[in-house]
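thread from #wetlab-drylab

HS: before we spend reagent money on co-crystallization trials with nicotinamide-adenine-dinucleotide, can we at least see a predicted complex? here's what I'd submit
DV: go for it
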Amino acid sequence: MSRTVSFPGTTAVVTGGASGIGKGMARAFLAAGCHVVIADLDEAALAATAAELCVLGVPTDVTDPDSVAALAERAVAEYGEVHVLCNNAGVGPFGAVSAMSLADWRWVLDVNLYGAIHGLHAFLPVLERNPDWGHVVNTSSLSVMVTPPHTAAYVASKAALLGISEVLAAELRAAGSRVGVTALIPGTVRTNIRDSLRTRRPAANGQATGESGLYQVDLAESGRDFRWLDPDEVGAMVLDAIRADQLYLITHPEFADQIAQRYQQIAAGLPLPS
Ligand SMILES: NC(=O)c1ccc[n+]([C@@H]2O[C@H](COP(=O)([O-])OP(=O)(O)OC[C@H]3O[C@@H](n4cnc5c(N)ncnc54)[C@H](O)[C@@H]3O)[C@@H](O)[C@H]2O)c1
């Protein structure tokens, strides 16, 4: 169903909005005239960013469905409606499949995948209530296409978000909904993700952390050859993608050949025509 997106006066909710890409998106929505609600687990960073941007900050743990439901209630109580949900909160530690504990897997999937599922569950009915338009932005990752070593838990969560975005977009289209979906697929962006173990709570998901196989890599050193974007550049791209109702937003077009190669390799696994 066709729709015209107009941002001024609408409300955008951004999880993981206290830092990095979330903060960049928050700034872009603000510049476009939106009310912005940022949600984050890191209460100190949340308070600082909310004060800096003069927006509402709601302490939220996306791994907890009740916390995300309370976020939706708070946003609606404050502004009456929500037009955009950015499922963006995420963690990006490294860990070999053979080294990660079950608690490691569960933490990464709880934040990156279940966090977004909780967002969809709480916010889709709110977005659907708008007579004009609504939009979901799910932050996936280019790592889904290039599958670097020691990123299995991360890639699993981000591949799931890509798949969910595709299915959701098709379901909404089939239902004639005015809610659109964008899978944000960033390459390297200058953020605090290299330090995401900082957000792991000792007994997240009711499980003791125990022996962990997770570690952090400062890609600033090893990723010197990559093109690093500023979160504000990504924020601007996201607004354009919402306006255009664009399903896939890949921030680094220079990966086109690698992406095409991946799908060619998959297609090469097809049985040869007899
Ligand atoms: N930075 C990159 O190069 C890059 C590339 C691809 C994808 N991404 C994705 O972008 C998203 C944003 O990450 P970033 O790079 O801006 O990192 P970041 O660490 O700067 O920001 C992530 C934010 O998520 C918050 N968060 C973590 N766990 C949470 C929880 N349980 N509940 C609520 N908030 C929580 C953190 O406190 C932090 O403020 C993530 O989903 C990440 O996987 C980042």
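DV: The chain has a mean pLDDT of 95.
HS: ok that's useful, forwarding to the group
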